[in-house]
Write a structure and sequence with these properties.
5-stranded antiparallel sheet; 10 strands; alpha+beta; 3-stranded antiparallel sheet; 248 residues
Length: 248
């Protein structure tokens, strides 16, 4: 995501009689506007916002007009809902891998070194909830819409159980707070496994601004998974979606 990216307002509503809540102050007094005028405002504002966000390299990921997908904004009468996704930079993936390697080395005893060998970890890209090949783009960005995710999962069948043993075995990692907020660690950031520690460290990097980075047990299970928990411990990246809703 470009550093100059300005996220869209999350919500803006204009009702048919000119009342309602807006997340910013409208420059025009619409209290006495006719319904046709409000419909024109509805369409114009939505179209202008989409154009502005495209210029910021933040194209819409999902659009619904009058609760119908595929209907043009220029035919909107009552409601326009647009969700904007983001592009995840490849550099962000490298940051997460580096943080995971450090976390594993800091919390485990080196034996074979397989766990900290990042060739034993795998990236999975989900497009609209389905596994897909990573796209190639001009700037190396990975498009991320409402139902997209990038998952870092282990290839080793014991990685999940190793992470859990660190958490429950008293060898968990401690994530200190940023210096701006003091170095004292909170209870929430103590006793972490290498997955959670790496995810939270990565979230602090500007490359992940606009994205969620969380540890989840997913169904992308490793063959022969030792852990009896449902799924494999993975780090999942999803977009923090900006959404705007217009109602006329």
């Amino acid at each position: 995501m470009a550093e100059s990216y300005v996220p869209v307002l999350k919500r803006r509503i204009v009702t048919a009689d000119g009342t309602g809540h807006a997340s910013k102050i409208l420059t025009d007094d619409i209290s006495n506007w006719a319904r046709d005028q409000l419909i024109i405002l509805l369409r114009k504002d939505a179209v202008n916002t989409v154009a502005d966000q495209i210029r910021l390299d933040n194209p819409p990921a999902f659009a619904s007009v009058d609760r119908t997908r595929g209907k043009p904004i220029t035919q909107a009468v009552r409601r326009v809902e647009i969700t904007f996704g983001s592009a995840l930079k490849v550099a962000a993936l490298n940051i997460l891998v580096a943080e995971l390697r450090r976390a594993i080395e800091a919390s485990t005893t080196r034996r074979t070194g397989k766990l900290s060998d990042m060739s034993n970890w795998q990236w999975v890209y989900l497009r609209n909830g389905q596994r897909a090949a990573f796209p190639q783009s001009r700037d190396g960005g990975i498009p991320m819409g409402p139902r997209d995710a990038v998952i870092l999962r282990p290839k080793l069948d014991y990685a999940t159980i190793a992470n859990m043993r660190i958490v429950h075995g008293g060898k968990g990692l401690t994530l200190k707070r940023t210096r701006q907020r003091s170095e004292r660690a909170t209870r929430h950031n103590q006793g972490l496994g290498f997955l959670a520690y790496a995810a939270r460290r990565a979230r602090r990097h500007s490359a992940f601004r606009g994205f969620n980075v969380l540890v989840k047990f997913t169904q992308h299970k490793v063959p022969g998974e030792i852990s009896t928990r449902q799924g494999t411990g993975t780090i999942v990246i999803t977009p923090q979606l900006g959404k705007r809703i217009w109602r006329g």
